[in-house]
Write a structure and sequence with these properties.
This protein is an alpha/beta fold and 587 residues long. The protein is built from 19 helices and 17 strands. The protein has helices spanning 25-30, 83-97, 114-121, 157-165, 200-204, 216-223, 255-265, 273-292, 307-316, 330-338, 341-346, 363-367, 388-398, 419-422, 429-443, 484-496, 527-543, 553-563, 569-575, and strands spanning 7-12, 15-20, 55-58, 64-66, 77-79, 145-147, 172-174, 181-183, 210-212, 229-234, 269-270, 301-302, 353-359, 384-387, 461-468, 471-479, 505-509.
Length: 587
């Protein structure tokens, strides 16, 4: 029986509003097209009421209320803007700015900073209060994200994201009063902490206190070196997010425009990570069938496409390494294929190839340094990783009218893909793509309906069963690292008690929503934005003639000419990896 929703009525700036009980004043105001300014509030996170910018007045109440955390109650009469409120907000902003650097021109968030924007909106032009700045050096020890505590406004967003959304607990507040700052517990370096480089702290920070390590100069230098043969690959989730930097509607798929852009920038070959996603599926689906049908390996099989999840797994679940797929992530596979198969086909010296990956993810910057997997070609397989945000900056630096570019195609070698490859960017997409091919591997025929809609959507954990010719396959999909514990502990409990396994196949993505919500994507992501980005990928899949990885003719060709078959000795050497248990804290 559905519960009855209690509604409350009141007024915001004289306009009647009716909302469900428990709705905040902030959200109630939006119902009547009133935007109350905030700095500490983010749609993904619980309100901290830390900044004080969102103060409002309620008739009959002598105190100003913080709209982000105060419920809108029956009969409330709220005023959100008047001279006194505006003056108070300006004073609060001036106090925040008195403890903040003014080096906006060289800040990683210049022109994309919430504090900068709100200060401009309120016309802050003078320093009314003495500027007191903490001399704290930036921490770039991870090489993926940079922590710059002197730019922190103590909103707590990064800590909430790290501790509660991701369950990593790499960040916390230390010291008190004016000395309060963000830091790994114990005031150690990020590289010594449990940080898994997922970048969700960076994605939720309103200022330049946490931002991605910028590698765009490395790309420019490689493109300008006549001795280098620069190739590029683009991840599924990038194509449905990059347009946000140029005014496109959220979720607009710009795949072919990106291909044209890369050639304008000077890349000699344009590949697509979606192709390698198909390759990943060939290996991972074969691996699942080996375990599920032939008993060659323990169940459940757990996906390993996400580098932040792999890092988390090695630190928190090192005792379950035998359950993880040994298949490399798609961009790693494309990296090694570009310096072996492609280099041979084109008679290019692989030592001259520079492989640039455009990813939605900051953890990919860490992944390419893993010696366990990223040097199978005899060279570093992927040389440089840039995020979607870095790509947006590069496009603007290049002076290319991105919106005016005509569509182009990728290179057929390592560029053509099936619909299964493109849905990798959304939570559940890896599972859905793998099941399409695993079903074929078991039965010898394709599914009549290749859509597995039970694994789609933004529920933190999705559990379902798939019927494979009368055999039930139990699966789970988890996204956002805080949701992983439920799934993993359920498996461990079953093993401990000698009970039937709750799942045979598990997909995990570190970031909420999967790669569409990655730590390197455009800022201010919400669940609605994640849904729209995912829709752009699913729409492309639906429109494609070839929707299963094993039906991609270029995948068939690469096995025929080079790899022999999934799980062959050559495929194992080039496309698979190994893991090892790692300590949470590095001494």
């Amino acid at each position: 029986m559905s519960s009855v929703v209690t509604m409350v009525k009141g007024f915001v700036n004289g306009r009647a509003v009716e909302v469900p009980a428990g709705t905040t004043i902030l959200d109630a105001a939006k119902k009547v097209q009133v935007n109350i300014p905030t700095l500490c509030k983010h749609a993904d996170l619980l309100p901290s009421a830390g900044c004080g910018i969102c103060i409002v007045k309620a008739k009959g109440n002598r105190k100003m209320l913080r709209a982000c955390c105060t419920p809108f109650e029956n009969g409330m009469d709220i005023v959100t803007h008047d001279p006194e409120i505006v003056k108070t907000r300006i004073t609060v902003l001036e106090l925040i700015l008195s403890n903040h650097p003014t080096d906006c021109l060289i800040c990683g968030r210049n022109n994309d900073c919430e504090l900068q924007k709100i200060a401009a909106d309120f016309g802050i032009r003078d320093d009314r209060f003495q500027r007191i700045l903490a001399e704290i050096p930036a921490d770039n020890s991870k090489g993926t994200i940079i922590l710059d505590p002197k730019k922190c406004i103590k909103c707590g967003r990064c800590i909430d994201a790290c501790q509660n959304m991701q369950d990593v607990w790499a960040l916390s507040f230390i010291d008190r009063g004016f000395k309060t700052r963000i830091s790994p517990a114990g005031d150690i370096k990020l590289s010594e902490s449990p940080c898994v480089s997922c970048g969700q702290c960076s994605a939720h920070c309103p200022t330049g206190a946490i931002f991605e390590h910028d590698d765009t100069r490395k790309v420019w230098e490689a493109l300008q070196d006549p001795e280098k043969y620069c190739v590029v690959q683009v991840a599924p989730a990038v194509r449905v997010a990059v347009g946000e930097g140029f005014g496109y509607p959220v979720g607009t798929n710009l795949t072919k425009k990106l291909y044209a852009l890369f050639r304008r920038l000077g890349f000699k070959a344009v590949f697509d990570t979606n192709f390698a996603a198909d390759l990943t599926i060939m290996e991972e689906a074969a691996e699942f069938v080996e375990r599920f049908v032939h008993g060659k390996g323990p169940l459940p099989l757990i996906t390993s496409c996400c580098p932040a999840w792999v890092d988390y797994m090695e630190k928190y679940y090192g005792d379950m390494i035998q359950h993880f797929s040994t298949a490399k992530s798609p961009h790693e596979m494309l990296g090694v294929m570009s310096k072996t198969y492609y280099a041979q086909k084109k008679n290019i010296d692989p030592s001259k190839i520079v492989n640039v990956s455009v990813m939605p993810c900051t953890a990919k910057k860490y992944e390419i340094t893993r010696v366990e997997e990223m040097f199978a070609s005899g060279y570093q397989d992927v040389d440089i990783v840039i995020t979607t945000r870095e790509l947006i900056r590069m496009i603007k630096q290049a002076g290319v009218e991105f919106e005016s570019l005509a569509d182009e195609d990728a290179d057929l070698i390592l560029g053509d893909y099936a619909g299964a490859g493109t849905i990798f960017g959304a939570t559940g997409g890896v599972m859905e793509a793998a099941l399409r091919t695993a079903y074929y591997n078991v039965t010898g025929e394709n599914l009549k309906d290749v859509n597995f809609k039970d694994v789609r959507g933004l529920d933190g954990v999705k559990e379902t069963e798939v019927d494979v010719k009368g055999t039930k396959v139990r699966i789970a999909v988890a996204h956002g690292l805080a949701n992983v514990k439920y799934v993993m502990e359920k498996v461990k409990a079953a093993q401990k008690n000698n009970e039937p396994l709750p799942y045979h196949f598990i997909e995990v993505m570190a970031c909420p929503g999967g790669c569409v919500g990655g730590g390197g994507q455009p800022y201010m992501v919400t669940d609605e934005i994640r849904k729209q980005r995912a829709k752009g990928l699913y729409d492309e899949d639906e429109a494609m003639e070839v929707r299963c990885s094993h039906d991609n003719p270029h995948i068939q060709q690469i096995y025929k000419e080079f790899l022999e078959k999934p799980l062959s000795e050559k495929a194992h050497h080039l496309l698979h990896t190994q893991y090892k248990s790692r300590p949470l804290y590095v001494k």
